[in-house]
Amino acid sequence: MNTIFDHKLAKGVGGLLPALDVPEQGIEKLIPSSLRRTHAPRIPNLSEPELVRHYTHLSKVNYGIDDGFYPLGSCTMKYNPKINEDLARLPGFANAHPLADEDLVQGSLKLLYEASRYLCRIAGLVEVTLQPAAGAHGELCGMFLVKRYFEKRGEEKRKRILLPDSAHGTNPSSATIAGFSVTEIPSGKDGMINLATLEEALDDTVAAIMLTVPNTLGIFEERILEVTNMVHAAGSLCYFDGANLNAFLGRARPGDMGADIFHFNLHKTLSAPHGGGGPGSGPIAVAQSLVDFLPVPRIVKDENRYRFDWNSPHSIGCIHSFYGNFGVILKAYAYLLLLGDTGLREVSENAVLNANYLQESLKQTYPLPYERLCKHEFVLSGKGLGEGISALDIAKRLIDYGFHPPTIYFPLIVPEALMIEPTECEGKETLDRFIEAMERIAAEAKENPRLLHEAPQYTPVRRLDQTRAARQPILTYPFDER
Amino acid sequence: MTHPTQFRYTKEHEWVDLEGNHAKVGITEHAQGELGDIVFVELPTVGTDVKKGENLATVESIKAVGDVYAPMSGTVVEVNTQLESSPETINQDPHGAGWLVILEVSDPSEADSFLDAPSYEQYLSEG
Q: CB B37 to CB A409 under 8 A?
């Protein structure tokens, strides 16, 4: 596959400049030699049609949520309503400058303020910062809040974070980067936290527990109140990873479950586009005890005017330039207003219904290690399906059937894991087509495993050598060798 | 038997080759098979003191990142630097050239509770 620099035709001209209507000045006069470049910039010289064809081609060999079903577990790849894009392009929003005077951007500030209020209501917590740029950034920010909280209390010895083995993969890294050490707690046989194991792990060196609710098996912690009560009784805090909010949006509130900090993934749950590296948005909501430590600036409302408030002496400081990823927050707020409270409750209802429909249908064919009513996602195992068949083979074969593969090899507690999250956006017909494809793949795994080992067969590129890509990554374009 | 009889094994799928108070540590054939192609290994620096159960090394494969816990307490006296450029050595020869570290252990009797090769394979088959 060619990059833009590989085109043999790269000798054209992309545009013609109009004739000069002022006297020409030599570059020597205008720019001192120390600031002049010595080599020509490496800009591909393509004509406009060549450029358009290059990127149109790339867009056609890509696969996204606008092409079809995308059941990537834990990622909530829901449809991104196009009205969000229309609203984000309104000139008053699109052209607002982050350094503009507050009086000139009252509408944008109001939007941010109202979005925070709505998020507080969903979380059942008292205050929100919209600044974190993604879920993991929200986690890191949350861990800084935890750290500051215990510093203020003179309890610096609380250096440990407890993490169930069914938690999100980013949790341990966020905790570690914030300066904590991580203690893993094994799940019980039912896929949930074992209270006795938790009791044993809790002591006065534990700062917080990071819980993913529902967990990465798609199972809701049924003893959540016992868990958070025990953690609070030990003087520790409860961080809830909100990546799986789609499971209970509008139906239950993390604050009522005992969360002190809860992060949202606006690009997952609230329909802002994601994948391909972002941008995302990972606001965190907090309980009263942590409000003073939130990042600055905070948006406040005086009577009818909105402004940034920098006066917060105990704040952990700035964690993002300006005020978070505004466009993403705007799209999420549009989605909130579009659906309203009733619509949001239907989102979680249908997300859970779809996941259970798939789980019940597919467990006939694939092992289901943790069998119970699931929430918005579930985890099958690809183990024992056929001679030498791996989760990777199944995932690659799904591409041949026209579906994006699910998340594989996560969570780690399920061998050959296939983590499937359909979201609320799919109708029964799509789900049935997916079930049929999965059943045919299971049959192929027994009858003709080569089909799986050699998949994908019908894609622009066949199976990529991911081992070599990881061991010898090429991260720069080798201009000089071309 | 794929697992050498002169080694001792932990339920965390590490092998220990104990000679006097020197313990060579690696991950087992079974562990490398479960991890798949290993692409990166992070080793401790020589001289690091570790307690039994603490993080000793990190092994990253195309499927997962796994922590290797110190099977015994002691001081790291040698690390397998070859793994930095050739992490695949663990896949190719987990019980030989793919060793991770050598520990000077403070209490050799900590190894008494480890499994011998037949018990380890029995443990795997009970899986």
A: no
